[in-house]
Amino acid sequence: MDKVFYITTPIYYVNDVPHIGSAYTTLAADILSRYMKMRGRKVFFLTGTDENAPKVAEAARAKGESPLTYCDRMAEEFKKTWDYLDIQYDAFIRTTEKRHFEVVRQFLQKLKGRGYIYEGYYKGWYCIYDETYFREEEVQDGLCPNPECRRPLQRVQERGYFFKLSAFQEALLPFLNEDKRVLPDFRRREVINFVLGGLRDLYITRQRNDWGIPFPDDEQLQVYVWVDALINYLTAVGYLQDDELFSSLWPPDVQLMGKDILVRFHATLWPAMLLAMELPLPRLLFGHGFWTVQGEKMSKSKGNVVNPLTAIREIIRFSGCEESYAKDALRFYLFRSTPFGADGDFSYENLRACYNGDLANNLGNLLNRLTTMSTKYLDGEIPPPGYDYSTEVHSVLKSYQEAMEELAFHSAIASAFTLLDLANKHLDETAPWRLYKEGNIQAVRNSLGTAIELLRISAILLYPFLPSASREILSRLGFSSAPSFKEANWGLFTEERKGIKIKAGTPIFPRMEEVIKISNQEKEITIDDFAKVDLRVGKIVSCKVVEGAEKLYQMEVDLGELGKRRTIAGIAQYYTPSELIGKNIIFVANLAPAKIKGLISEGMILAVDAPGQVVIVTPEKEVPPGSKVR
Fold first, then answer.
1. Looking at residue 340, what DSSP letter applies?
2. What is the pLDDT of residues 383-438, one digit of tens each?
3. Where are the domains positioned within the chain?
4. CB 552 within 8 A of CB 569
5. Which CATH homologous superfamily contains domain 320-497?
6. In contact, 274 and 171? CB cutoff 8 Å
7. Which positions ≥6 away from 494 have C-beta within 8 Å?
8. DSSP state, 360?
9. What is the pLDDT of residues 222-263, one digit of tens each?
10. Would you say domain 527-616 falls under CATH 2.40.50.140?
11. Cross-sheet strand order for the sheet of 154-163
């Protein structure tokens, strides 16, 4: 069987819901997967959840649930979030699956049989949050030396088993020194320095606590969670279960992860385990940077953890764009604004600037200009290009492909936007509006056909980053098939396409009018803080679609003695006006007025925001408008 392109994300701890960091890695894998499919490759894209960690069991107990019930629920949250974000993974593995238990135990038995596991006594430090063992010389103050953690460590003294990691110090260096096996390059140098600093045998068991995988032949102990977790990449592709499937997929072509789990685990322990089993090593390990929020590390205590679903709702709220395009806009911002591999800083102000500058003013505006002019001047005709930009397109395709192969996603996007800039420049120079006034229709056809062809090719290149918007652009230009890289060549206009009309439509990316405020705060507040919020029961008395923003409603709400207020809400895809008029709702009555799409919004309706749906909060019983919510 031909080798399938195998992509993995790390498996995510289920001690909390997905956030922008975990979404970032998974979106990157989806971008690469879509690109490879555009190139005609078969792809196997794996993601999943890491469920056997002690901190997961702690999180379950804190919720009053059994660990398995908790893990079942949280795994579904991850699946729902990835599905909502239009992430098209091929397999989702959970480490609590029976097949994974069996593979882990067989793997360790084989390692033991090869002489790479031995029994001993461990004495040292352990971080339950990072699931990491630290040597004495690495710990100065009893706190985790990882600067992203810095929590108190546990002192561990117990009998268990060790993996002979030290035996692979020299064997790992050729792999690490090989070009483009670990990226970015500065991360590779970190790994090399770590290995050259001396590898010590790794303690790979913990005392049994009834949550985890029992160690083979010694079930008083359980398998160290990182050994268990790394083996998921083997389990999911049929290792020790389906030889034909395994041979068609192994080794992984790209393994993506955050920088915090690259050095010790994915670029050191993981390849050492594979070398011990004489299995081929991954072709590329890539450790990307972290996201901060307005210069600060994301944390629940600071209340600045960015929920991707909330960010999408904010994009819809302040732009009025359709939900599928708002998902695209978030994806685009994450990979346009920061080189993949470097740390990024999330802010809604920067998101707005990126959205307006690249998506509304450039890509969206070009589509609107061409649609309008083709309809007005050529009765919707899509003419062939009248100018030859094949040389420029060939150069762009080359730079785009090189960038995508190296996961330089921001550079790939920049290459695609070179064509958009070229199309806008071409229109400005040829001025089809002037040519039309002069009656030179052939020159108009030459001008518009050229710009349409440049837009078509750029839409194909942007497909991994803007899947819904790119498909819509291509559809409006008369192409209904899935984007293919072989179609990103100049001058594909054929005789069969004659007579196809350009499709008009509402703007894909309406301008975002206001700077978005962070609205997903989770920071604890006092009762005095809460008392500042004036919540009232209101009755919706009128509702209509905001002109030019079909996803927004303008509603008038009766608050009894407080009078009537107008509010703007992005809920048109979830409710019809008839369903809302007469409905009792909960209304924030003392929110500062905001200007949205040129209209004043004088408060906010409370609603539950969940993947794929929004549900308005209503009082259980009929109460008079204006009643205070306490």
1. B
2. 999 999 999 999 999 999 999 999 999 999 999 999 999 999 999 999 999 999 99
3. 320-497, 527-616
4. yes
5. Isoleucyl-tRNA Synthetase; Domain 1 (1.10.730.10)
6. no
7. none
8. I
9. 999 999 999 999 999 999 999 999 999 999 999 999 999 999
10. yes
11. 132-134, 117-127, 154-163, 202-203
